[in-house]
Write a structure and sequence with these properties.
By secondary structure, the chain is of the alpha/beta class. It folds into two domains: about 170 residues, Alpha/beta knot (3-Layer(aba) Sandwich); about 70 residues, no CATH class. The chain contains ten helices and ten strands. The radius of gyration is 32 Å and the shape is elongated.
C-alpha cells in the first residue's frame, strides 16, 4: 500500500497499463497523451504489435513506445505497483456485485493525492474493456461519467481524462498557492487606505469594507493574484499621497470636499449667506 506524502516529497508516480489493446494507432495516441501529462511508463499486456501507425499517432512520444514493457500475464503487468486503479465504462452499483462499483475521477484524486508511490492506471480493451477477474485484482475501480446512451469512451480519450484530472491536482498544488489570511488582511488594509484617500463617505465605509472582504474570500486568490492586486490598488493610493504632499508644499488645501469652515456656504440668522474663509488658489465668487 502507498504511504502518505510527507514534507516536500512529490505525489504519486503514475504508470499506464493497457490490457489487450487491439489497434496500434490507439496505443500511439495513448503514448502522446501520456507525454502531454508527463507520465513516462507504459505497460502493455497481451498487446497488438506496434507498427508505423502507432508511431505516427504518438508524434513526439515515440520514446514512450520504445521503452514500453510487454507482458503475457495480466498479474505480471501489475507487479511493482503500490496501488492499482481499474477503469470501466460499465458500472453496477448494487452492493453484492461490487466489482464494478466505481469511484469518479474526482473521488479518486481526493483519495490518492496525498499518497506517494507507484500508482497503476489500468485501461481495458477497446471492445470489452477489463474483464471482471482483472478488475478484481485492482485496488479501486473508476468510471468517467458519460452519456447513458453511449457510455464507453475511446481508449486514448479515457486515458486523457484520467491523466488530466490527476495532473490538474498536482499543478494546482504546485503553482496556485492560495493567499494566506494575513495576505488577504493586508490587501483589505490597502483598500481601506484607498477609501480614506479618496474621501469615501463615512456612513458607507463599514458595509463597503465587509463587501470587499466577502469578495476577496469568495475569490480564493492565489499568491500571484494577491501581489498583482496589491500593486494595482497601491498605485493610485501612492499617487494621491504624492499629489497631497505637492499641494501642501505649495500652500494649497489638498482636500476639496466642502465642509464647515472650508468654503461651504452657511446661513446666517436672517437667512442671509455668510461666506467661510476663501480657499487659496480659488477665485472668490
Amino acid at each position: 500500500m502507498v504511504a502518505r506524502e510527507q514534507g516536500g516529497q512529490s505525489g504519486p508516480e503514475y504508470v499506464v497499463v493497457l490490457a489487450g489493446p487491439k489497434t496500434p494507432g490507439n496505443v500511439g495516441s495513448v503514448a502522446r497523451v501520456m507525454s502531454n501529462f508527463e507520465v513516462r511508463e507504459l505497460r502493455l499486456y497481451d498487446s497488438v504489435n506496434l507498427d508505423d501507425g502507432a508511431y505516427q499517432r504518438a508524434v513526439h512520444a515515440g520514446d514512450i513506445l520504445d521503452e514500453a514493457h510487454h507482458y503475457k500475464r495480466f498479474g505480471n503487468a501489475l507487479r511493482g505497483l503500490d496501488f492499482t486503479v481499474g477503469t470501466t465504462g460499465i458500472t453496477n452499483l448494487r452492493e453484492k456485485r461490487h466489482v464494478r462499483n466505481p469511484l469518479t475521477p474526482k473521488q479518486l484524486v481526493e483519495r490518492i493525492s496525498g499518497l506517494r508511490g507507484r500508482v497503476g492506471l489500468v485501461f481495458g480493451r477497446e471492445d470489452y474493456g477489463l474483464f471482471n477477474e482483472e478488475l478484481a485484482l485492482c485496488d479501486v475501480v473508476v468510471t468517467i461519467p458519460t452519456s447513458k446512451r453511449y457510455p464507453v469512451m475511446n481508449l486514448s480519450h479515457a486515458v486523457a481524462v484520467m491523466l488530466y484530472e490527476l495532473h490538474r491536482e498536482r499543478v494546482i498544488d504546485k503553482e496556485a498557492t492560495v493567499a494566506s489570511e494575513h495576505e488577504r488582511d493586508l490587501l483589505l488594509g490597502v483598500f481601506r487606505d484607498l477609501l480614506d484617500t479618496t474621501g469615501y463617505p463615512k456612513h458607507k465605509r463599514l458595509s463597503t469594507e465587509v463587501m470587499i472582504r466577502r469578495i476577496l474570500g469568495r475569490a480564493t486568490l492565489s499568491k500571484w493574484e494577491f501581489h498583482t492586486m496589491m500593486g494595482v490598488v497601491k498605485r493610485p493610493v501612492k499617487q494621491l499621497h504624492r499629489m497631497e504632499a505637492t499641494m501642501r508644499s505649495a500652500g494649497m488645501d489638498p482636500d476639496p470636499r466642502p465642509g464647515p469652515g472650508k468654503g461651504s456656504a452657511k446661513r446666517g440668522p436672517k437667512g442671509t449667506e455668510r461666506k467661510g474663509p476663501k480657499r487659496t488658489g480659488r477665485a472668490s465668487p
